[in-house]
């Protein structure tokens, strides 16, 4: 990818934002090297890894990066066999712990969603828990070695503590003895040796070694001869302590050296994971989705937002190129959003091709391009003494020399800066040449000639940025299929220009031109309405699809639970039968033994006891195996399609969907589920009166129970799965309680919990509307939910 496009489209600013979400300098270095990948396979894989990391953050919470540091210098030293200092060892241990925890973090249970790409990355991690434990047991902090690092160190420090205690007792007695000769009645330490601060005029009164003096020379620090041996012993122990610490550090460093390949690989994987999860955090912060990627040059980006523009003011845009046309000519007034459209399409493509998720709606599609060329903005070069036109043309020459079918070309005000007639002709020639190469082109212009070119040329389409004549302001919405209308007369009229001047101006324009402008206006109005209708239809379709998927998942889960329960029942039944058989065999064996003994009174008594024992056992087995069901109502001999009947096993009314087959199996509809039941399980439906009474009792009970339903729920401290489950349950209760509005408290934090709740609310059946809290309501730490009417 050419560096000019990356600079013009401000990809470097995106990378700087990405760095905020990393934990290590190594990950920042990976971001510095980030650029679009060379083939579509790599693009799709890296988008998938980002998407998986995003899902992990939502479902499992923060990734286990606690205590992680950049340890590349420490690893380099370990590779050379050098002895590492405590802080280096501790940070390596933290990295190893992080790597090991990641293997647990990405694991999934059977039936749960897998994370293929990240699991493959984590497959290369080699857990080294024994080295972790050794380092954490031996090193207490970045500068402190633990007493328990070795038995020798423990003994040395214990002896050192005892010696220090002895010498302090001794020196305190000397302080009292020589108090009249001392500057202060206390001792001090010089060079790890206990000394007394003796006044210089009394130096002969204290026998000992002078170690230091004060800056004024009035005080001498003397080590009394009585302390020399004790101080020597302490010094010797301190040297032994230092030697033992060095030995421990060397030993731990050697363990790192012995496993250096695994340590190095683990660290590289952790840096890569730090980089991947930075991309996921960026996606969470900017509400990004994973785009579809194709090799056909087809672009369909829905509700795209430029990530560097304030999200509160930016207007999302929809843009489609490459399906019915390969070139898009955008016209419209200045400051209407044409340049922003170009930069948004270009930047979102570079982000996607670099493995990032993009700030757009789901199902947005980008294409793999080997090159994105951008001629945007004023490229005038004073140093080269080039005019604006010359500078643009120099850039265009480079594009013409290199663009092909795998290129996306973005032109801003193509042909501007020179004579309008010549500039328009030149622009048409450039566009035609690139179109013939099958390059995908988006260009902005003010030239009417280019509008006409788009109207009459196959594979070229007009577009415009919408302008509101009433407010004299652009709406920043892109309208594909309609060339922009100048609106000069309408704007001038609303600004106060006299009508006679406007009428005179109209007379100088041909009728065909005026009719053409009116046609544009008419088409624009119809297009806006059609677009609104299509958008509403698409939203309803997506909501219906989500509801369908939701209930299909519930049905699948129900079938799975039913099958599991059946298998469990079979297993228990087999165990019961096996136990009964074993006990029966034992009783029969006892009976044969009694027969051999002869039928004495004692034998007959034992035989009767065993008979009763077997009978009781069978009764208990029969009680265990018996299925207790509520068997209300009259049995049915036959049913017809559409009949409403009562299913005993389900304890509810169902609708018959099919006649009984040869096995007397009937398909019924129970709510949203279709279930096969035996005819013997069906009864005549309960009377309407009984049903109504039951319903009234149920409603009364619900109302009584729901008096205690709170008007808010606090999710802080929960993970995404637990919070989503509790919110779903709470909304059901609040809906039944008749609440019109409730508050969900999720806190601000990283925004992961908030995003998970927002995603759930989009498709919840009881939710009418929702929004973030305002000032005084809790701000972005809460979501206000408006519930549907009963």
From TrEMBL:
Residues 506-540, 570-631 form a coiled coil. GO terms for biological process: mismatch repair; negative regulation of DNA recombination; rescue of stalled ribosome. Keywords: ATP-binding, Coiled coil, DNA-binding, Endonuclease, Hydrolase, Nuclease, Nucleotide-binding, RNA-binding, rRNA-binding. Its EC number is 3.1.-.-, 3.6.4.-. Residues 713-788 form the Smr domain. SMART domains: MUTSac, MUTSd, SMR. ATP binds at residues 332-339. Signal peptide: none annotated. InterPro entries: DNA_mismatch_repair_MutS_C, DNA_mismatch_repair_MutS_core, DNA_mismatch_repair_MutS_sf, MSSS, MutS, MutS2, P-loop_NTPase, Smr_dom. Gene3D superfamilies: 3.30.1370.110, P-loop containing nucleotide triphosphate hydrolases. It is an enzyme of class 3 (hydrolase). GO terms for molecular function: ATP binding; ATP hydrolysis activity; ATP-dependent DNA damage sensor activity; endonuclease activity; mismatched DNA binding; ribosomal large subunit binding; rRNA binding. It holds the Pfam family MutS_V. It comes from the Bacteria. Belongs to the DNA mismatch repair MutS family. MutS2 subfamily. Acts as a ribosome collision sensor, splitting the ribosome into its 2 subunits. Detects stalled/collided 70S ribosomes which it binds and splits by an ATP-hydrolysis driven conformational change. Acts upstream of the ribosome quality control system (RQC), a ribosome-associated complex that mediates the extraction of incompletely synthesized nascent chains from stalled ribosomes and their subsequent degradation. Probably generates substrates for RQC. Homodimer. Binds to stalled ribosomes, contacting rRNA. This is Endonuclease MutS2.
